């Protein structure tokens, strides 16, 4: 018994229509956000390697420290923090944004940031 091409198309269309992307279905083009966990990463920036540590602190905020930079490298610390947070923790297409001004103490830059 042969199935008419039109009938086959209707059967396939009905099957696809059942996949509405509702609860329980994940559309594969939507990349899930990585889990919010503490991380420690070596970051290579402008020819040197620095240490980035960050951890979630609630409400979508992250506490961040960058070691290995001098007190005169505030702009570098901001650049490393925002781009690294965007890479490691933010959903695709979002960058990290500082929510506090960076402060240098104990040989580390300390700041807080969020995705956005």
Number of helices: 2
Mean pLDDT: 83
Overall geometry: elongated
Note the gap between the termini. 58 Å
Based on helices, strands and strand pairing, what is the structural class? alpha+beta
Gyration radius, in Å: 23 Å
What is the total tally of β strands? Answer: 6
**Largest sheet report:** 6 strands, antiparallel
Order of helices and strands: HEEEHEEE
Polypeptide structure, described:
The chain is of the alpha+beta class. Helix content is 24%, strand content 34%. The protein has a domain at 39-115. It has helices at 5-17, 74-88; strands spanning 39-45, 48-58, 61-67, 96-98, 103-105, 108-115. Strands 1, 2, 3, 4, 5 and 6 form a six-stranded antiparallel beta sheet that branches. The chain is elongated, with a radius of gyration of 23 Å. 18% of the residues are buried.
Short description:
This protein is an alpha+beta fold.
Write the layout of secondary structure elements.
Layout: H1 5-17, E1 39-45, E2 48-58, E3 61-67, H2 74-88, E4 96-98, E5 103-105, E6 108-115
Antiparallel strand pairs: 1-2, 2-3, 3-6, 4-6, 5-6
Annotation keywords:
about 120 residues, alpha+beta, six-stranded antiparallel beta sheet, 6 strands
